[in-house]
Design goal:
The protein has about 130 residues and is α+β, with helices and mostly antiparallel strands. The protein is about 30% helix and about 55% strand. It has a six-stranded mixed sheet with strand order 2-1-6-5-4-3.
Length: about 130
Amino acid sequence: MSTPNDADLLLALVAERTRALTRMDIPALAAILHERYRYVDSLGRDLSRDAYLQSRAQGEVRIESQLIESQAVDHLAAGVAMVTLRTSERLSYRGERFEARYQVVHICVRSDREWLFLFGQSTTVGD
């Protein structure tokens, strides 16, 4: 289990990511992604950090709101943690609005100064 301080920092990082995504603040999003970041989206696409940021900047996927239904932080090893979330989101994909629920997994690593996202995956879940 993570120390409460690390857990708090990781949940704050998740909140920062949500803010960056809903505001389409690409520089803020880029600042919290590790240089080797990978993301597997709910369509199964494996995106590099650059491809993920480009996709967000182009507005292919826009998150209007995200409600976190549940969240957990697990310490995996020194400087490595997993954050799991269940979310309900309002978003659009290529201009088409919809609502969806996701199971989200983030692997985060601690650099000298801060936690960063190293890997993320979202899977669509039913009600």
